[in-house]
Fold this protein.
Amino acid sequence: VPPIIVAVDALGGDQAPRAIVTGAVQAARREDISVALVGPVDQVRAELERHGSLRQLPITVVDAADVVAMDEPPLAALRRKPRASVKVAAELVSRHEAHAVFSAGHTGATFLAAHAAFGVLPGVERPGLAVTIPTRTGTAILIDAGANLESRAEHLVQFGIMGAAYARVGWRVASPKVGLLSIGEEAGKGNDLIREAHAGLSRAPVTFIGNLEARDLFSGRADVIVCDGFTGNIALKVGEGLVETIEHLLRQELNATAVARLGGWLSRRAFQRFRRRVDDAEYGGAPLLGVGGLTIVAHGRSSARAVENGIVMAARLARERVVERLAEALAG
Amino acid sequence: VPPIIVAVDALGGDQAPRAIVTGAVQAARREDISVALVGPVDQVRAELERHGSLRQLPITVVDAADVVAMDEPPLAALRRKPRASVKVAAELVSRHEAHAVFSAGHTGATFLAAHAAFGVLPGVERPGLAVTIPTRTGTAILIDAGANLESRAEHLVQFGIMGAAYARVGWRVASPKVGLLSIGEEAGKGNDLIREAHAGLSRAPVTFIGNLEARDLFSGRADVIVCDGFTGNIALKVGEGLVETIEHLLRQELNATAVARLGGWLSRRAFQRFRRRVDDAEYGGAPLLGVGGLTIVAHGRSSARAVENGIVMAARLARERVVERLAEALAG
């Protein structure tokens, strides 16, 4: 089996390039994954040297001097910077020199670079970002997690179709249940967008279970949760912020008495396992579904471990030929 | 000091009338609170009798036979049911026979009944539901939590002004910081609605700290968090669902080994205190800001304890003359 080559944007992310390079080295130590690190050659090489001898590892460095900063309007930035790392990384995939692109940088810039390099699959109007979230029973796919800021009902219907195909192909869910995120379970509940999308999903070739309240996001009731990108981004970030706040408040309570302190100390491994379970599912990376090349978007705050997980996910989805099979599913 | 009279919708809520009546009895046992329980007299009396001798308690029963069910379109239901409990309760306030109305029933029906009975304060276009959420440093106000499903930018600006006035009057925050919930902190981040509301809040007579990411909802960065009702409802319900899921997953981990079990047992009181801290702040009840009478909306799933807290909150806000002082703040 030839190795899967993942083109990694070495400049994208709050802790780039260090966390990106470390994560890439860790991923490349696994079987059957090659990494093309895309960024300023000197800077990337200097980071690589921190990891000692890499002679055996399948890592190449591809030069790209520029980066799209988090506060730049991405369209203008990409026009002004033809050597932006995320653009060069996407072009490696469109030239068939890599199988997937991975970036923890500006989501909008990754979206635009992938769109320009790969185009969209036949029948897709708007690509959607499909994040995997932990649930009581396993995981669920939330789409769109923020690739688009304004959506029409027909876009939500496509998110449902793409999300279901991805759940089947990428997560081996035989018959994924698709729910529409809204403020009440009844079909009439929600705003105009939701009511129209509800009607569309009822007619779409998916197992539609109707509206899903946000309190059921993590309950496992739905395998695919459809929403517009603004709402999806809010829902995910509320989740992140709350996990941190709960840990903070629990830590306060666990420090309040000696008995609680002892209890907290004895249960610290349980907390670590819990935290890992949340992190693994959430931060590995999210495929941008609907573009013609495999594109994995990771959280800007990704640690080296999250980058490693994201690259491993990219390789797995490339090996499963997710983009090709998604195109087949969309074709009918 | 004459007691504050709270008109309580005995039929509203998933556990009505039992949890409502129990919560009302508990609230009436506190100093200076009278309760008018509004519902079918026989049914309410039967529930009251479960609590033994109530001769000393300041509780009256006001007859109202009908209820707006959770799956009914509320406008049509209120027209068809002139004796709906929430409507009769609101009318007690407009006739000055009570100081505040409390309901854990259909939020839309409470909104419409309050609007019909009280009208809106001068200058208010859309009332907003102001929920108190726990943060690392105390509490924050989120407005709108779901009174409106579609909002324009000028409504969001008014939510900010009303929320800030409520934080000052109801929560004694001297100079409340107002944030606009969006998907990025920069002024340009968000959809069209957010960008327009950002411009409006920048010019409004409030301490506007700009966009607030959803991950900062519980961080304490803002005292007042402004959003449209659809987004606000999603954000709050994601929070609720996640708290439950985290407890579930942590329980699993705490049961995985004997040491973790012992740790979990020793720290159980810390968990209880944590849970109470979350519940107290979140489920007490939320005032509908902008209507001309004090209206407290509680969660449909409210327990007796949550109902008690909500009635106590209603009495406190009535005593502080929140509606009158909000009207003054809005007037300039």
Notes: The mean pLDDT of chain A is 90. The first strand of chain A starts at residue 4 and ends at 9.
